[in-house]
Design a protein that fits this description.
The complex is a heterodimer. By secondary structure, chain A is of the alpha+beta class. Chain A has 10 helices and 20 strands. In chain A, helix 4 packs across helix 5, helix 4 runs parallel beside helix 6 and helix 5 packs across helix 6. Chain B folds into 2 domains: 46 residues, no CATH class; 214 residues, MetI-like (MetI-like fold, Orthogonal Bundle). The chains are: A alpha+beta, B mainly alpha. Chain B: Its main location: membrane.
């Protein structure tokens, strides 16, 4: 949003109205309303089978929605338009590159279909290959370039047709972890530079955070929450989102007199959250824990700790069996059996009413 | 030591097998070139038998070539798009169609020929023409082309390739030509070789279907074995080999050339 607003905007806005999809009587996408502004990047995040790929394929035109007028690009109904007429750029998880063509022939294919003359096509292909850093690989066969290079070829090929929207289906899932981390930064920058409307499907929350202007977390065929990454992370709308995005500690219990108390020999907690008496679940992120020793501090017994360098992840039990994960300064040693005291800021505690 | 022993055994077995396959062919060729097979090498060699075969049967050689090439053209036109259509459609219907198409292979050639004659016997000019033989050969060879193409389709992710091309704006017929065909080429080449060899060597179907004017090489060969001296029949075999080997090499070369052309 910040960056895309200043960049030249290309691409269409996308909106869906009560969009549904049913396969053999099985509704895999519940009525979905979605508004994606032109130039914005929306990430669809969720576990496998949550409907994110179906939603992407519906927007692409690879699947037909259940009814008419469910998908619009810039206000035009495209629900019945097949993918070859929809002018969408698509990057597939398996890349779908043509093994019978070279890198540059793959990139040029869409322009060739559109009847662009040879010289213009060649110039545009060279420009795109330079953009994704593949100018030296133009004449290589697809089978003779690496996974990362294939991925970038697929991206250049999709951008070559100047699509109204760019759709990416887990484009990094087939790559190894190091490459994935590098490319997700590159892709995020590239998409913003292009200022193109993009829908990006992934099950990797780190990828979602790095790339999305907004993230739609999906669960069992519906959007559980849609917002900017910061809100998704710090203010998850429900249990599912809290659990799926990042690590979340949960303490369930009864609040009475505004305090949730847990007691056990020499450990325990008294979390002052206020409000009426109730059964509840209090959640907080590992990094919200601050070392403290006051009377309000939570005391927990260390079970194990993993050293990360700048921080360490300490696993500790506030009562037997109730484990918490805490990110604490790595300069201090925490041995198993030791008691650690910490506090959590009130603002960092998220509460979901016990369902 | 152990590995050397197995390697030696492997070479010996391969050599024996090769001899088992080659010796009868070589003997045939030898017989076709001897002046008198019964008297052996002492009688000397001659090309007279080959010349006689050419004089008597050259029309069957050309007809066999024409029939094989027409059969190949038709199986390519029907079999390749047909195989893709079946794989695309999938499900029980596609499997049923595949079984029906394969049926002529299981049914004895004579029965198939009889069925063809019963059906088209009344259509005089068609019954009399070389095309009648071609249709019989297409029925018999089509499943080999289709199965060969289907086998390759099963190993490539044709659906994603098709979707990828579609996302770039390519209409269905162009996706088939630009993306599907080049990537099933190995299946098409293998299928073509099978169809050509089957068509050229086909005897029992053709024997039943042919008329004196539509004799193919194998039918002529049977004729020669039955009514001519051994040397002529053997020389005929030699002619057959001289025809079929360059043809098969030619198909391989054409396949290689088209690959280079589309790659550039």
């Amino acid at each position: 949003m910040t960056h895309a607003a200043t960049a030249p905007q290309r691409g269409s806005s996308i909106s869906t109205r009560a969009l549904t999809k049913t396969f053999n009587g099985n509704r895999v996408l519940q009525p979905t309303n979605l508004e994606i502004e032109a130039g914005q990047i929306l990430v669809l995040l969720g576990p496998s089978g949550c409907g994110k790929t179906t939603l992407l394929r519906l927007i692409a035109g690879l699947e037909t929605p259940d009814g008419p007028d469910m998908i619009r690009f810039d206000g035009d109904d495209v629900s019945g338009v097949p993918i070859e007429k929809r002018n969408v750029g698509m990057v597939f998880q398996s890349y779908a590159l043509f093994p019978n063509m070279t890198v540059s022939e793959n990139v040029a294919y869409g322009m060739k279909i559109r009847g662009m003359e040879r010289s213009k096509r060649d110039a545009e292909t060279r420009r795109l290959l330079a953009l994704v850093g593949l100018e030296d690989y133009a004449d290589r066969r697809i089978t003779a370039v690496s996974g990362g290079q294939r991925q970038r070829t697929a991206l250049a090929r999709a951008l070559a047709i100047k699509p109204r929207v760019l759709l990416l289906d887990e484009p990094l899932a087939a790559l190894d972890a190091v490459l994935r981390e590098r490319l997700r930064v590159e892709i995020g920058l590239l998409l913003r530079e292009f200022g193109i409307t993009a829908v990006y499907v992934t099950h990797d929350q780190a990828e979602a955070m790095a790339i999305g202007d907004r993230i739609a977390v999906m669960d069992r065929g519906r959007i559980a929450q849609i917002d900017v990454p910061r809100v998704i992370y710090h203010r998850p709308a429900n249990d599912f989102v809290a659990d799926f995005v990042g690590t979340m500690n949960r303490i369930d219990g009864r609040v009475s007199g505004g305090v949730l108390s847990l007691e056990s020999d020499d450990t325990g907690a008294a979390l002052a959250v206020g409000g009426p008496d109730r059964e509840t679940v209090l959640c907080f992120r590992p990094e919200s824990a601050r070392l403290a020793n006051g009377s309000a501090a939570v005391r927990a017994r260390v079970v194990a700790s993993t050293f990360f360098g700048p921080t360490q992840r300490v696993v500790a039990e506030v009562t037997p069996g109730r484990r918490l994960q805490l990110d604490l300064p790595s300069s201090l040693a925490f041995d198993p059996g030791q008691i650690v005291g910490f506090e959590i800021e009130r603002e960092a505690i998220i509460e979901f009413q016990e369902a | 030591m152990r590995r050397q022993w197995t390697t030696t055994a492997g070479i010996v077995i391969t050599a024996l097998l090769t001899l088992f396959l080659l010796v009868p062919v070589l003997l045939s060729v030898y017989a076709g070139l001897t002046v008198n097979y019964a008297r052996g090498i002492s009688a000397g060699f001659t090309l007279d038998w080959v010349k006689q075969v050419w004089a008597l049967y050259s029309d069957t050689v050309w007809r066999s070539l024409v029939v094989a090439l027409m059969t190949l053209a038709l199986t390519l036109l029907i079999g390749v798009p047909g195989a893709y259509a079946l794989v695309r459609r999938g499900g029980r219907f596609a499997r049923a169609v595949e079984e029906i198409v394969t049926l002529p292979v299981a049914v004895p050639g004579l029965a198939l020929a009889l069925a063809m004659i019963l059906t088209y016997g009344g259509a005089g000019s068609f019954r009399q023409s070389t095309l009648f033989v071609v249709v019989g050969h297409v029925l018999f060879t089509l499943p080999f082309m289709m199965r060969s193409v289907i086998a390759v389709l099963d190993t490539i992710d044709w659906r994603t390739l098709d979707e990828g091309a579609a996302s770039l704006g390519s209409p269905a017929w162009r996706r088939f030509l630009d993306v599907i065909l080049p990537n099933v080429r190995p299946g098409i080449v293998a299928g073509s070789l099978t169809v050509l060899t089957l068509s050229i060597g086909e005897f029992n179907l053709t024997w039943m279907m042919h008329t004196p004017m539509t004799k193919t090489l194998p039918v002529g060969l049977a004729d020669a074995y039955a009514s001519m001296r051994l040397e002529i029949a053997s020389a005929y075999t030699l002619v057959f080999l001289v025809m079929v080997i360059p043809l098969l090499i030619g198909v391989q070369l054409v396949a290689g050339l088209t690959e280079k052309r589309t790659a550039s």
